[in-house]
Amino acid sequence: MARTPTLKDAGPETAGETEDCLRVRAPGGSRWRAGLQFGREPVDLGEAEIEAAAKAKGLTPEALVEMLRSDSSLSLTPHRRPISQPEATPEA
User: Fold this and answer.
1) Mean pLDDT of the chain
2) Angle, nearest 10°, between helix axes 47-57 and 61-69?
């Protein structure tokens, strides 16, 4: 039986650390929800963004996600995004 490729098998251009996020789109056009703007282009919300938006609205992160899920004008999908690594700074 053939082995299923994993992220460890990926080449250097695709390998790297990733984090879970929620990809949100408004296929019908611009839409504001929970103080965040969405449009046809996907917006990836990681844990930090969800927590910050929830805090700004006085909600729990779970309540904010439920608010997004309940909006039929939005499309939500789980996603993994790369974690940007800080660039090394040359030492003097």
Assistant:
1) 83
2) 90
Give the span between the Cα atoms of 29 and 77, in whole angstroms: 17
CA neighbor of 74 nearest in space, from 64, 83, 82: 64
Per residue in 48-89, pLDDT (tens digit) is 999 999 999 999 999 999 999 999 999 999 999 998 765 555
Asked if the structure places residue 87 within a domain, the reply is no
CA–CA dist 43, 40 (Å, integer): 9
Distances (CA, A) of 69 to 17, 46, 66: 27, 15, 5
Specify if 72 maps to a domain.
yes
Q: Which residues constitute the domain of residue 22?
A: 17-82
pLDDT for res 83: 82
| Domain count across the chain | 1
